[in-house]
Amino acid sequence: MPPFQELFTSTEFWTAVILALLGGGGIGGIVGAWANKDKTEADIDNIAAEAARKIQETLGATVESLRTQVDYQEQQIEHLEKVQRKYFTAVGYTRRLFHWLQDFCELAEPEFLARHPKPNLPDELRPDIAPETIGKE
After folding, report:
1. For residue 75, is pLDDT > 90?
2. Is residue 11 one of the residues assigned to a domain?
3. What integer pLDDT is reported at residue 48 of this predicted model?
């Protein structure tokens, strides 16, 4: 039997064709065309205009929702930048204070620093707290 004849007599082939038509929307397209065959041009225009209006409403609501989210995120970013500036100011002050205390301890009680050496700044904090010291230790 020739290969094409085997193909058309195969159950698997016809099962695949039917599933492709149903799953691919082929039957739906045929039914839709048959159902719309009596519609006039004006009916089709009205249906298209209604569909466009619904799409526009949906997109408008979606865009408005996205604008609200973006505005909220901008507020969050501004707040976090403000907190970050405050944090960096506090860290700078704390660093200056502890350097002053180190100098004070050296003057008042030099053996205190020998007994209690200053702790090293962890490497993961160095870029944020003391970037000028990177590579100096």
Report:
1. yes
2. no
3. 79
Predicted TM-score (pTM) of the model is 0.44
* Torsion over CA: 50, 55, 58, 59 (sign): negative
Per DSSP, the three-state class of 120 is coil
Q: What would the two tokens of residue 101 be?
A: 């205390």
Residue 110 DSSP one-character state: H
Which SS3 state, helix, strand or coil, does residue 39 take? coil
Residue 100, in any domain of the structure: yes
Q: Based on the structure, what is the number of domains in the chain?
A: 1
State the number of CA atoms in the 13 A half-sphere of 122 facing the CB: 2
Residue 96 domain boundaries: 39-131
pLDDT digits (tens, 9 = 90+) for 85-107: 998 888 888 888 888 888 888 88
Q: Is the pLDDT of residue 80 over 90?
A: yes
Residue 33 falls inside a structural domain = no
In a domain, 30, yes or no: no
Q: Nearest-CA neighbor of 136 among 28, 128, 126, 72?
A: 126
